[in-house]
Design brief:
This protein has helices at residues 3-9, 11-24, 28-31, 35-55, 59-75, 79-100, 105-149, 170-187, 204-219, 231-240, 254-264; strands spanning 153-156, 159-165, 191-198, 223-227, 249-251. The protein is α/β, with parallel strands linked by helices.
Length: 275
């Protein structure tokens, strides 16, 4: 009898014994699951494993592992937790093989090699799946941080403010420009105030990124006002011979920039008259 058939004939025993052993390990996430829920999960894993043992670890099995790791990691299972499940399952496979083929030692050796190879490949699949999950998490966190560090703030009708904080690298500059253009369209902004007070260093790369943002806004019909340039930044720009600000309105701080923006659209802020 072939290995996959031996395992298929003993699926329910494998599921029951594996679930029982996992419950005995005392893992809090596993213990909180009802027996039927955990059994269904293990049964799917057993069936997928048997199919992979028969036909090889293919794209279907890899996708199945990706889905499992994505779901289980979301529940709090670590890489070690999932490896322990595969270890318990492997041990049960070996037990079944030794019992069913006890009169065929050559078959036992042959099938054990298959199980060992499959276990190794499945562990690699799990490791790769966890790497994908971790990379996706890092990307999502980075995107969230970028959105927090570069907010687009509608300040008045037709005026938006972009306060920049921290280092402006190429990736962040591109994302800022995209978000700025979307905000210009959605807010119908005529004036964009870019505040660089929180940018520690302005070098050639940062200057070019600012120029790209200004030019992109100009293409949509918005005028940019640059505020917050410190004396050190001004000296650096002069030394770098960067002709960035020749046709851009600049102000010392956000207050002055807002006053300029309001004047450009014929608005002003006045105290209310007391009745």
């Amino acid at each position: 009898m072939e290995l996959d058939q031996i395992l298929t004939n003993n699926v329910e025993e494998i599921v029951h014994e594996t679930v029982t052993k996992l419950k005995n390990l005392g893992h809090p996430l596993t213990n909180k699951l009802e027996y039927s829920v955990l059994s269904n999960r293990i049964r799917k894993l057993v069936n997928q494993s048997v199919a992979a043992i028969k036909s090889g670890v293919d794209e279907g099995f890899i996708n199945y592992m990706d889905d499992i790791i994505l779901n289980r990691s979301g529940e709090g299972y670590s890489f070690i937790d999932m490896q322990n499940i595969m270890t318990v399952l492997r041990d049960k496979f070996i037990e079944i093989i030794e019992r069913e083929c006890y009169e065929q030692p050559d078959k036992i050796v042959e099938y054990l090699k298959v199980i060992i190879n499959f276990t190794g490949e499945s562990r690699i699949c799990m490791a790769n799946a966890y790497i994908k999950v971790r990379e996706n998490t890092i990307i999502q966190q980075q995107q969230a941080l970028n959105e927090l560090s570069t907010p687009i703030i509608p300040l008045f009708d037709k005026i938006v403010v972009v306060p920049l904080v921290g280092t402006i690298d190429t990736f962040r500059a591109k994302q800022t420009i995209e978000r700025l253009l979307n905000a210009i369209v959605s807010e119908q902004a005529e004036i964009v105030i870019i505040d660089v007070t929180g940018v520690p260093i302005i070098d050639t790369a940062v200057a070019q990124n600012l120029l790209n943002a200004v030019n992109a806004a100009r293409l949509l019909g918005s005028t940019c006002i640059l505020v917050g340039i410190s004396p050190d930044m001004a000296q650096t720009i002069i030394k770098l011979d960067v002709n960035l600000f020749s046709d851009i309105i600049t102000n010392t701080n956000l207050k002055k920039g807002l006053e300029t923006a309001l004047n450009m659209i014929d608005l002003e802020i006045k105290p209310r008259k007391k009745e």
